[in-house]
Structure formats: structure tokens, C-alpha cells
Records
---
Amino acid sequence: MEQISLRTPLALLLISLGAIAAAWWWLATPITLARAPIDPAAKLLCVSYAPFRAAQTPLVPTTHITSEQIAQDLAQLAKISDCVRTYSIENGLDQVPGLAAKVGLKVIQGIWLGSDRLKNAAQISTVIGLTKQYPDVISAVVVGNEVLLRGEMTTSDLVATIRSVKSQVTVPVTYADVWEFWLRNREIYDAVDFITIHILPYWEDFPIRAKYAAAHVDSIRKRLAVAFPGKEILIGETGWPSEGRMRAGALPSRTNQARVVSEILAMAKQENFRVNLIEAYDQPWKRRLEGTVGGYWGLLDSVQRALKYPPGEAISNFPLWKWQMGGGTTLAVLVFGTGWLTLRRRPWKPRLSSWIAVALSATSGGILLGVAADKMYYESYGFGGWLGWGALLAAGVASPLLCTNALMSGRSLPTFLELLGPREARTRSALPILLGLVLAVTSLVAAQTALGFVFDPRYKDFPFASLTMAVLPFATLMLLNRPKAGARPIAEAVFAGLLAGAALFTGFNEGPDNWQSLWTCAVFLLFALTLWQARGVQIPELAARSPGPTG
């Protein structure tokens, strides 16, 4: 007994801690680029600018950004860029040209067009006035941004609007839209002074991997140059997100964002074309419209207003990896400690497979805790988002601890009937109740997420880290401490069917290149199998009350 209860667990613990350290060393490995994404010695040509911070959002019409806040941003941006591109004059953005003049920035001034003609007229009138007031600051006017993509104007109305603005200003006039819409609406070509196209490899109908993003941008630019000869092509938006869900093989990350931006800028310099990066600062409010990924296209973060990639510094996806690794190793030690303490209170000789299961739970939890916490921080939006992702992370932390206790106590995974069923069927022990609650929370969040991937998947994040932390201990407990013979509970069967069906659909829908999807679907299937194996012990009193079959 001494060999199994002390030496083997200790060896497994050391292996677990070593695996956690090795995994975090690999995850946090930084990259060093030949060209810094942001180099004050070689300023950017232009960068999209929106001033909104924290809870500020243009989705609330009364939002007004003060001149002091905008002035702070522009003074900072003037150190890394020669120009800013704006999209509107609302919410205080009409102050940008005047404030840009004070710090030596040029402005590509946007007019936001939509389906409201009166609002369009007000925007146009204001921008025409600004071009006359700041002729040395506003270098061009963008009449409409992706209004054709949104279907809010017809091509003929847009062309008429462009020509009207062009007749009233002395600066070049253009229209901005994704590159496909230029090819579909060629008549706009004659109305503009130059062409402004948006090329966002991540958002393509067939997403482009980060390592091919710069080549894709250049390929599309050359294709448009052939289709529209004789006029300059400005890439009005391009870039890469630093956070959010994968689309096919396109993975948002800090290192990928730095690599893509660096390679596009190097290509623009080599081939002498103009490019405007999207965007200056992360915009949290966009997460309401585009999910997590929408809020993290910035070169500077939203909170600290700090460069994500300071020149000369290596770039890591997990700059706080030492803290994340420390949290993971602490969790692993606690999981093994729970096993030892459980055996001290109830001495018996556990099987070697039980300690291996504990090691698997401790190692997976130790590696994934930091990833899950990172994802919760960036992917939680609003009260509901924080509640759901926070509950799943809490379940991911509690599951290996409670399952280890159950494993070493010889208990099986509780059923929902033992937690919420008739009084005669409920368990009265505190730890089984807690484990049942963790199982219920995981099931509910997993089911909600799975349904989201089926009915509205475009902006949904994959909770692979937290979900794995919670589900793997359930699965090992179900495998090793099989429940007593009994009927399959209907609740577990329903959840199992839902998760299995959603996993198969999501895996097919997202494709084989999306490892976040494949991982999440694999955990859904493992969870479905675990719930399918549940068995509820039939209570004689309840069986006697059940009406018999009728002839």
C-alpha cells in the first residue's frame, strides 16, 4: 500500500508539474520579427481611428467624446503615424481635423452614409465645411463606408452622392468597400478620384491563414489594379485581430497580428502602394456587433492605450505566462493533495488507474487554467458573458478537485436526479451535491454553447480550455467508478443527444482546418458519452407509485 499511496502519486505529480512547465514554455515562446510592426522611426502611412474607450459606444446616439480625450489619442498617434482615417463626424469626431492640425496629422475624412437621407445630408454638409476650414489637414474624403455591403444604398444613389460631394470640395474623393463590391459595382470607378478597397484576410468568405495574409492582400490589390487601370488603389482597411475565435485556419492571436501587420507594411514599402491599417485602438464596443474578434483589431490596447508590440521587444501570445503557469501548478498540487487527503480520511488501496486519472485531470487543468482565464478575460462581454464564461471556468477548477475526491472515495458521478429529483432520490452528502452542481453548470453552459454553434455560429467563441478542464475529470470518474446498474436518466440522455448532434454539425460546418472547433467538438462528444453512461438507481417506493401498464 505504501508504494501506491505515496511513491507512485509523487512520481505522477512531478511528471504533471514538468508537463505543465513544458507546455507553458512552448505556449509563451516569443517571436522576433525582422521588421517591427510599429516603428516610430518609420511612421505608418495611415491608421483608422475611433476614440471610444471602455463603455463608450457610438451605438448610443448621445455618446459624445470630449476634445481632451481625442487630443490625447492624436498626440500619441502622431508619434507612430502620419495620418488618421475617420468614418464619421458624429459623437465628437467632427473635432478630429482641428485637433489633428495641432499635432501635424493628416486626416482621411469619412462621411458615414446609410438609409437615412436626412442624416446623410447632415454628414455631407458638415464634412464639406470641414474641408474648407482645414484644407491643409484633410487630404481626402471617403463618401460612404461599405454602404453597398450593408445594402443601405443603391449604386446609382451612391454615385450621385459621390459626384455631388466631389463638386463641392477641392480634395480627392473616394468610396470605401470590400474588394468584391468594387468588382460588382464598376460604375463607381468613374465617379471617384481613387479607389479605396478593404482586404481583411480573416473575414474572407474562405478565410486566409495568417502566414498567407500578406500575399493575399497583394494578390487582390494587383487583381483590382488590372480591373481598374488608371487610378490609384488605396488599401483602406487591412490588418489582423489579436483575440477571438478561429475561422477555418485563420487564428487571431498577438503573434499572428504582429506578423501580418509587419509583412503587409514591408510589402507596401517594397511595391510602393498606400495602406491604411485597421485600427489604431482596440474598440470593445464592436464586440456587441462582431463578437470578441471585433474588439481586438487595434495596434494599441483600449485600456492602457499602450502599443501591443513595442519596438525591440519579443512578442508572445501570453506575456503573463509565468503567473498563468504558477496558477496551473498550484491547481495540479491541489488536485493531488485532494487525493492524498481523501485517502487519509478513508484508507484503502486505490488502483493505479485511479492515480493516473488524477494525474490526467491535474495536468490538463494545470496547462489549461491560464488559457481559460485568458480567454474569459478577453471573451466575456456584458453581464451574461461574464456569468457564463465565469461559471464554466469555476466548474473547470472545481471539477478535477471534486472528481478526485469521488474517485478516491469510490463514488460514481452523481445524476441530475440525485440533485434535483424527488426527495427520496436526492443525495444528502455535501461533496456529491457540489459535484452534481458542477456537472449541472457544465451541462447547461455546454448545451447553450453547442446550440449557438448550430444556429448562430459566426461570432461565437470556442470554450475548449474551460470545457476540457471540467469534462475530462467527469469522463475519467465515469470510466473508473462505473455507476450501479439502473435506468438511463432522461435528462442526461437529452443532453448527450444534443451535444453529440451539435458536435457533428459544428465539426462539419467549421471545417477541418479549425482546431479550436475540432477540439471543442471532441470535448462535446466526450461529454455526451459520459452523460450517456449515467445510470439512476431506481427507488422502490417511487417504482411502487408508478402506474402499471394498461391492457
---
Amino acid sequence: MPEYQQEKELAELRRLIRESYRQTARNELEKENMRIMRGKLDVQLDLFKQIHRFSQRAFSVSAQSEFASLLAEGIVDIFQLETSAAFLLDVSGDKLSVTGSCNFETDEPEFPVSRVWLAKPELVDFKRKNVIVESPPEDLSPFARLGLAHAVYMPLFDNRRKLEGIILGGITQDGSIVYDFKPEAILSPFMVYCQNMNGIYNNLIALDRAKSAVDAKTRFLSNLSHEIRTPMNAIIGMTQIAERSQDPVELRKCIAQINISSRHLLGLINDVLDMSKIEEGKLVLEKAPFQLDAILDNIVGSLRPSAEAKGIFLSLDARNAQGLCFLGDSMRLSQVLINFLSNAIKFTGTGGRVTLRAEVVSRDNEKALLRFEVADTGIGVPQDALSRIFNPFEQVDSSTSRKFGGTGLGLSISRTLVELLGSSIHVESREGEGSKFAFQVWFDVDKSGSAKDALSAEQAVAMDLSGRKILIVDDVEINREIIMSLLEETGVSCECAVNGQEAVDLFSASQEGYYALILMDVQMPVMDGCEATRRIRALPRPDARKIPILAMTANVFKEDLQMVVEAGMNGHISKPVEYDVAIGVIEQVLSRESPHGECSFSND
């Protein structure tokens, strides 16, 4: 073999040997990398096993304080940190308060935090999923004073995305020795741990809120039972006294007390119905003309007897609201003001003062801003209870209902009504000195004058209904008797039917124009009021379309009232029937003598 060929083969052999060495080195490096990666994966797997173990433990926790301490213990054990604590962050108060800890000692259960530090986006933007690492903690950090060499912390949120707390893990600094700490090694599992525990924390809050709601409703039902039994006891007792008495004075006293107790009972029922409407999102406001000073006079006039009975001076200050007319839901406005005034009278002692103030803050040709305020010199509300008094079913404390009565619904309903009116309630109160409840509402200005016309109509002398015939349709005998008794003074002639089918038969057999009005119950056997109305409207005679038909119903939800209108009725009178309201509605219907669809009246 030639010498040059031998040298060539020898060079190739050397190259192969060198390549073999390099490949062996690469294999060894890959083996080392795999060993390191396997080690890291083992560490990560161990971390996740520990995270799972602490997450499982957290599911058995029953209190938020116990959860916070378990969370801090997990940070120390899982991530081998020296100390850990959970903090509640009060953004409005610029402070942190310790709620749970592990190996964490401080003389300050609460300490202030910097506004600049609070403004850091990482602390308020949960979607960014940022774990924050400080090494060492920056000067603005509230944890800089804790002697940490490094700090790892992350926000803790509730389901409403409101910042509730901060969880912190840290390594302490012992003299000049700073522990070897590589935060990037724990960031991913720390994030998982925080998010796992955050989900459990949300569940714990939700369960606590649900339990509080159940407890509040239980207290409410207990209070409601007491509130219902009190007027019912008066009604039954006074009825029994009246049955045995022959004294006209005593009989009048019994009737007066029965009337007061019945109205109180009706108010409780209305509160429960309103609360039901609110919870189902079915409470809506009407828009009709009203004269403000007339509304205010009626409110104060209706409550003055109860104030005088307690020796309380009740006054009205509405100096720049005289003669002004607006468009809005005057009934709901009255409901709010009556609630505020009733509470003020209830919680004010003898010799105290309760004042209703109404002021036109600003006004142009289209709109006016009205301010309403109810002030009293009563017992006041403790500052720590101000945030709770508007919660449904709640009162200041459990003794309130025993001492003063009530269900805890009035203020919650009032808050919802004021919010529907486009405003909010402002409360000022000092315990032992009194309270002020105020709100401002925009109303459209009524330029038609219809509110004053309606007021004049209410003050007019009742019309003579002699010679008119009314068909009363109701399956309950006492209801028919009450209506006939209420209408007796008007001179009207009444005939009765006990179900819808009988009403259709009577109307069909009568001569045209025989009946001037039909008062129709809705829920009846054989045939209900809606079906009876549809059949009457379908009869082939002119007065079948023209005769006014008014529903008499205890159903006051909007969909129920819409149902009777769609059936062909002209409006409704709610049960229990109020004499003045019922007579007013009947007179308006008969005076208009309009065909179906052109009028609708209600005592709501």
C-alpha cells in the first residue's frame, strides 16, 4: 500500500476516534442533562404531591381563619421557606392585617402600606397571574420591615374579583448570612398552589355567605311569624270582644283596632311580595303624573297619629315644593318615605322629633332634581351596623325585632326602590343622637296639569250610581257580601255569580246594556275570570265589547295583572278591597264609559 494511502487512512481513523470521543461526551452530557431534568421533575412532582396534600387538607377546613393558617403552613412546608403569613388587604384603609401565619411573629397585627405600592398593577390584575418576587424587598413593600432576604407573594381574590388578601412566603436574614434562594425554581408550583387554594377560599366564602343568608332568613321567618301573630291576635281578640259587647263605644274601639291591625298585616304581606319581586327581578316602576306637596301631606297625615301616640313631634318641611307636578312612580316614592318615617317614629322616644324635608335642588322646563331627607332624634345606628341595615332579612342586632318589631325587609326594599329611581341612600347616624336618611332623584316635570286634575277629581263629591246594575262574580260568599256592602251607599244595584260560567250565562241572557259593570274574580272553579272575560268579549252583541270589566284579584305581580288585561279586562281592584279606592276606580270607569283597551285602573 502506498505511503500516502496509509497516511490518509490513519487520518480518517484519528477523525473517527475524535468523533467517537465527542459523541461519547455528548452522550454523557445528555445523560447528565437527563439526570438533572429527571431530578427537577422529581422535585416538581414532589412539590405537586405536597400541593395536592395541602389542597385536600384545606377542603376539611370550616373557618376562614383556620384556612389562612393552613395556607401559610403549606407555603413553609412545600417550598421550604422560613416564614409565611396570610394578610387581608384593606385597600380603602391602606393597611394589611394578619389572618394566619407559620413561623411568623410580629408585634403589629396591622400595619400601613404605601399608596404607591398598592398602585402596582401586579397587585390588582389577577388575569396577569403574576407571582411577585422581591430580593431584597423594595423599600415601598410592606414586607421590607420584616427582615426578609427575599419575599415571594401573590394576591388572593374572591369570586367578585375584589382584592381580599395577600399570601406571602419569605426567607429570613440571619446576620450576614443570606440563604441561597432561587425564586425561579418555585414560581410555577407556587402559582399552582396559590390558585388551588384561592379556589378553595372562594368556596369557603360562598359557603359562609350561604350560611349567613340561611341564618338571616331563619331569623326573618321567626320575626315574620311574630309580626303576623301580633296583629292576628288583635284581630281575633277584638272580634271576640265585639261579639260579646253591646256597648256602641266599645264596638267602635274594637272595629278601629281591627282596622289598624289588618292594615299592619297587609303591610307585612306587601313587604314580602315586594321582596319576592326584587329577588326575581320583576319589580318595575310606573310613570304617572303626581303633585308633590299632596303626596307629602298624605304621607305625614297618615303617620301623624302614630307619632302623636308616642308623644313625638312630626313635621314636614317642603317650602319650595308647593304646587309642583312631576312624572314618576309616586307610590314607590311614598313607600320609601313612609318606611323611613315609620322607622324614625319606631326608634324615637317620647318628646323626640321626626322631620321630613323635601327640596327642589334644581329645575328646568324638562326635569327637576328633588332631595328628600328624614331626620330623627332617636337611638341612632352603631357605626359598625351601618353597612348591614340595608341587607335583606337583617336588623341591627337580634334584640331589635324583640324590642321594636319588624321583619328587616323595609330598608332593603327601600334601597332597591331608590336605586330603581336612579339614586342611592345616604345615611348619617350617631348612636344615642339620631339618624338622617337622604336621597336625591330626578323626575320629569309634568306640564300637562293632569296631576292637578286628578287631585281635583279625588276631592269631588261621589257620583250617584242609582239605577246602575253591577254583576259581581266571585266564588267566595264573604267577598261578594263585602263588595255589595261597600257599594250599598252609592245606590248601585248588585247581582252575583259564583263562577265564570255563571257570569257568561247571566250576561248572555240579559238585555243589551242591562249591566253597567262587571267585577270579576280571577281564580274560580268551573271557569276562571280570564276565560269568562274572553267569552263575554266574543259574544255577538255590541255591549260585549264595551262593558267595563274590572278584575278583583289578590294577585299583584305584574305578569298576573298583564294577564287580566290581555284577557280583555279594563283594569283591576286589588284584594283586600279599599273602599275609597274601589269606589274611585268604579266611578272613573263608569264615567268614561269607554270600550275595552282605552283605560286601565289600579289601586296599587
